[in-house]
Amino acid sequence: MSTLDWLLNPITAKDFFEQFFEQNPLLIQRDQMDYYDSILSIKDIEHVIDLGKNLSNFDINQSTSDGALDDNLYSFVVQEHNIKIKTGIDKIKIKQLLHKQKCPIVISHVHNALPKLKEFIDQLSIALDGNCYADMFITPPLVSKGFGIHFDLNDVYVMQLYGNKRWEIYESFGYLPDQPHFYYGFKRDDSKYRKLLSIDLEAGNFLYLPRGFIHNVTTRNKLSIHLTIGCLNRKWSDVLTRFNGELASRFDVLGQKVSTTIFNNSCNDLQEIRRIFETELTMKALESCHKNLKERNSGADRPHITSILCSSKSDAATIK
Description:
The chain is of the alpha+beta class. It has two domains: 3-49 and 103-235, Cupin (Jelly Rolls); 236-294, no CATH class. The protein has nine helices and twelve strands. It has a seven-stranded antiparallel β-sheet. It has a three-stranded antiparallel β-sheet with strand order 8-7-10, with no helix packed on it.
């Protein structure tokens, strides 16, 4: 069974691409809590946290309205000539933030800490013909504030590893958006969008969301650990941007300033630009640009805690 078929089981990769990919969300509920243990078990997760000193490249933030947490609350910091340098995470303080203050923890590019998970991500990148990466989310019980209602700019493949999480899924904010929320005037108000589904994602379950589908995620009465696999698909707009950049390096006219009056008059520059595109825009040229994009570095070299989202108000019970 291929990597993608295993991830989607019992859905086949063929059915996935025909019915769901870049079209519709897909929920797979399995009665097998340890389904993902072969690539990421609880012991593996403990190992990642125990790396500690190797997780020094990170930032920790509270939720949008609460501001940022000070580095000293979760990390070892040395100061040299008025410059703060993070040397690693303080595991004791991290656990206090997680258990007592109910702060969700996000460890990005966690696959780079575990060879078997990295192999899985590399194989998935080939199967999806994109650049995949894995982020791990550790969230305390009854957390209602995190990233809030939002949509992602890449396809999301969610693997619930432990506990459960409530997902509220809404309509897509346009077809495959590729710009940040503010660009579209997105409002973080769930009453403005049509809800499609409310589900409790349990351990062993899988969820796929094409980019643009609005969602909000909260924990229930248990600590939750899930893996989000993001896949950066190479779009036609990416290929054309690369193509235009390569043309601009060869033809001086494409690097010149555009005057607001140029469009009202017949202009030699416009004629030259038309000639360039008529000559250079070939399938071979686009294939070369696509290949160059594919070979680009797909992510960071090591895992790092990118955020700990913490609300100043907590309605959560203490974890035993």
